[in-house]
Each structure stands twice: as C-alpha cells, then as structure tokens.
Amino acid sequence: MACTMERSKIQVIYDACNAVFSQKELPTFQQIQWLRNLLDKTKAIDLGIDEFGFCGSSPSSSPTSVEGLIRGQDVSDITYIHIHECDNFSIGVFCFPAGGVFPLHDHPRMTVLSKLLYGSVHVKAYDWVKVVNSGCQTYGLAGSVVDGILKAPCEASVLFPRSGGNIHSFTALTPCAVLDVLSPPYSEELGRPSTYFSDFPVPFLSGYAVLKEKRLPDDLVVIGAPYLGPPIVTQNDLS
Ligand SMILES: [Fe+2]
Q1: Separation of 156 CA from ligand 1 center, angstroms?
Q2: 72 or 98: whose pLDDT is higher?
C-alpha cells in the first residue's frame, strides 16, 4: 500500500536542502529557486510559532504558550530557534521584538536564504568592493545592495558569497521572525566565523560605505528557544 502521509513543510525544506547542499557542485540557479519557492510557502505556524500569540504577562515570562507554540508577540529579546544543523547547512528562525537590532555581520563563503515570516523589518545589506584583512582587522569599501523595509508577506531573499548583500543588518520595526537557511553553516574551526562591522557612509559617493570590523557588540543579546514544530527525519535517522 502506498504511503499517504504528507511530509511537513519543514521536512520538505530539509529534504530539499539535503539534496542541494550535500552535492559536491555549487547549487544551480534552478535549485536555489526551488528552495526559495519552498521557503515562500512556509508560515510561522508550520514551524511551531504563533505569530499573533500574546500572553501579556511579565516580560520575563517564557514565550512558549500552553498550546506548545512560541508566542511571537511575547518575545522580549532576539530569540534563535535552532531547527537543524549538519556539516552542509543549518536551518533556524530568529524571532525579534519590535526595536530589536541585529547589527551588520557577514556570512563568509556562504549562501543564505532568508524568509520574513511575519512583521516588518528594516534591512541594510552590502557587498564588498574592496576588502582588506590586516591580520587583526577586516575593513574596506562596500556597495549598498539593500537599504529598505521588508514587510510580510514578501519573497524570500538570497545572498551569496560575493553578491546579494553578504553583509547585512536587521532592525525590527514590529515583532517579526526570519527563517534562515545557511550553507555551509558558521564554523570558527573551519574559518567561517561571524564578523561584525560598523558602516561609515562615504561623503560624495552615495551608495557606498566603509565597513570596519568591530567586536561582538555588548548589547547584542540572543537567547535560545526550543523548536516546537513538526519533528524532522534527518539523513542520520535513516542510516
Ligand atoms: Fe545574517
């Protein structure tokens, strides 16, 4: 008898990422479009997040509701919901409170798909024009790729190692959440750390800025929350 169990949306995304990012070759344009379309079909509720959920109790209370969902409107710090990580890719969701700022950071040698699930966010993104690594600091000239507001529903965005806005920042204008697929994932050991930057506009050269590496900002607080969506059957579970 044929199996009629429908795969969850996150299972479909996992299976697609596994097919695309486990191959030796770089992903093709069609494969990236395929993943992008899958992210576009995904809603917060498919990932165990109630975008409208609000409890209204003390701000320090857990954002998890009795129904077993993360309450999107109750998030008081930037919250990372880890869904999956393997050598080839990672999947997770960042939930932001209104006003939450994730400062400029890069994604070395990575392809990143991001889907705004709900809310609105100001996004700034740059690509390097000329970058210098002095050994103790990375700095250089960068061109602006995005400087505007994203409001859900909107299409997933994609950035690449050298294009699409590899260095970006988010400022939440309302409570919002971003589903992120990173390939390969960040790894200090494998030379893919996350580096933070300050940007300085270049006078008389609109659309460009000097970016200078800075230390991990003290005021950046990211807490973790459990993933409460449908479980994923991974490649490891099958082997
Ligand atoms: Fe990022």
Answers
A1: 13
A2: 98
| Percent of the chain at pLDDT exceeding 90 | 80
pLDDT band at 147 (very low <50, low <70, confident <90, very high): very high
- In a domain, residue 39? The reply is yes
Domain of 211, in residue numbers: 9-227
> pTM, whole model, 2 decimals?
0.92
What spacing in Å lies between the alpha carbon of 31 and ligand 1's midpoint? 21
d(CA 235, CA 233): 7
pLDDT tens, residue by residue, 174-196: 999 999 999 999 999 998 999 99
Total domain count, the chain: 1
Asked if residue 1 belongs to a domain, the reply is no
H or E element, residue 14: helix 9-21
Alpha-carbon distance of 50 to 43, in angstroms, equals: 10
pLDDT at 67: 65
Laid out side by side, the sheet with 111-118 consists of 157-159, 111-118, 176-183, 90-96, 78-85, 222-225
| 205 CA from centroid of ligand 1 (Å) | 26
* Token pair in block for residue 33: 């479009």
Does any domain span residue 76? Answer: yes
- Asked if 78 contacts 221 with a C-beta cutoff of 8 angstroms, the reply is yes
Q: What is the CATH number of the domain that holds 75?
A: 2.60.120.10
CA of 129 to the centre of ligand 1 (A): 19
Residue 234 lies in a domain: no
